[in-house]
Amino acid sequence: MRQSKKILYRTLLCLTAFFSLMLPAFSATGDHPVLIISSYNPDSRQTSDNISNFMEEFQRLGGTCGVELENMNCKSFSESPLWKTRMAGILSKYRDTKEPSLVILIGQEAWAAYLSLEDSVRGDVPVMTALASRNVVLLPEQGADLKTWMPESLDFFADFAGSPIKSGFVYQYDVAANIRMIKRLYPQTEHIAFISDNSYGGVTLQAHVVKEMKKFPELSLILLDGRVNTIYTISDKLHSLPPRTVLLMGTWRVDMNDGYFMRNATYAMMEAAPGLPAFSITSVGIGYWAVGGVVPVYRALGRDMARQAVRVLANPKNSEIEIISCETVMDGKLVKERKLDIASIPGPIRLVNVTPGFYEQYKYHIWGVAAVLVILLTGLLITLYFFYRTKRLKDELEVSEAALREAKDRAEESNRLKSAFLANMSHEIRTPLNAIVGFSDVLSAGDTAIDDQRGYFEIIKANSDLLLRLINDILDVSRLEADRVTLTLEKCDVVQVCMQVTASVTQARRSSNRIVFESAADSLEIRTDIQRLQQVVINLLSNADKFTENGTITLKLEPDMRNRTALFSVSDTGCGIPPEKRKRVFERFEKLNEYAQGTGLGLSICKLIVEKWGGRIWIDSQYTRGARFVFTHPLDL
């Protein structure tokens, strides 16, 4: 119940965050709220997930402030002169008693719009930021030619020392580290072609790259700017790049026509220049195109934001801006194909697109096969134990001269049952074991396609499950016949138990049969071993389902107050049971159809369990539409 409430609660939080992105504002009442201003960039799912995680963690930590959500609805860089006014308009709504206790800026557009405002407009409310870069450009004024406007890249920590933004999380894009990596792997490089799109993030990265490339005067920089290009013109320009050019990826989501593109755009670029070495400073293209890159360690920040917000609200002078560091990521497949020496690259390297070894890829399957073999060996040892125990009893009986004939007859009967038991068990074990051993040999030989390997493992797993069920049934029969099973009695509503079992079998079975439950009473409380009662009913329902096609299987419960018993029956509309075989169906390994799946132990186990609690089980010979099994359970146990 607690788990269901938690899932419902998380769902409501996600829906709240989603609808907050669709509407102008969402309000959780209260004076001096926490004001969240979202850029509403194309990556809305990331934003909504962070907001929902923030609100859940904020409430869990005891946050008492209300929460207000505002969206700037930012799209492409073409509308960037409007963002400053939008930010000022949002802040103007929260004055006097509605003045926020904390402002949280999510996304680069909100971050840049806030930094572009005058101090008098921004006020002195503490501000937190997230999903933004430490490298920023101030927004252009109205009338600026946005296609040719080349802003200066500013560093937040160096150029905005007096900013009220004192907490949050900012990314750091290490252009210099990427250029040094390119020079180590491609020492003949003379040109760097940088791709950026028509978004604020693309313009910011381009300004940052232009500034950082001044540290490498030996390299020329070619800008493939999304403000003046479409995906098609970019692809054409990739064809005409000069020799010894390496491509550096920034972002690409929106082009000069404000058309949004996601991963398919970079695939189109890759097809336009498949042999061009490509690197990434934002992780775009890594895993299918880019050789690698030094990129930020992206992670979900919602819960970290909530914990930091609680600390800031407790002490507004608290200052803690976390710079999210970078990591070196390389495409192992491309590194191998292009024979690149990555040993000279400093620091740890995280490889992607690396095919794991056979053991790492299938270790759980191997452990599963080993476990099955151990279980099989254990079953054989148990069988040998009972075999030698029976033999010892036989020898002891033969010692008694007075009961020599009786002992001899019993020994012969015991020997016959033992031989039949071993013969049946050997036959049942050999079939799945042949499949396990055979396909294991095929896999160990190697040179097998991955798809074939998966198919072989599915066969091994299915036969392993069959072996496990067989051994479980053998253990059940052995323990029940040896009277080593103790019933755990407890009160229960047997009507509810039957309804649950019917629903469970209906869910598990893949046949087209209809399974129904009928009860003469709405509730019937008895003392029983619930697990064993469920085992009997499930075995009977499964057996009926096996021999019925497109029919109806009915579980019926009738209390017999006169005899103080509960009468259970399982009826089907299947093929029925021939009269000559009805007396043998409860014997071990007895199967009506030798080609049907199963071990022939299920009905034998049912009979032993029912007799254990003092009941009876039989086949209703008056029922002619199929087969009907009936068993009883005492009401006073």
Automatic annotation (TrEMBL):
Its EC number is 2.7.13.3. Pfam families: HATPase_c, HisKA. The chain crosses the membrane at residues 364-388. It catalyses: ATP + protein L-histidine = ADP + protein N-phospho-L-histidine. Residues 1-27 form the signal peptide. Residues 390-417 form a coiled coil. SUPFAM superfamilies: ATPase domain of HSP90 chaperone/DNA topoisomerase II/histidine kinase, Homodimeric domain of signal transducing histidine kinase. Residues 424-637 form the Histidine kinase domain. GO terms for molecular function: kinase activity. Keywords: Coiled coil, Kinase, Membrane, Phosphoprotein, Signal, Transferase, Transmembrane, Transmembrane helix, Two-component regulatory system. This is histidine kinase. It comes from Bacteroides clarus YIT 12056.
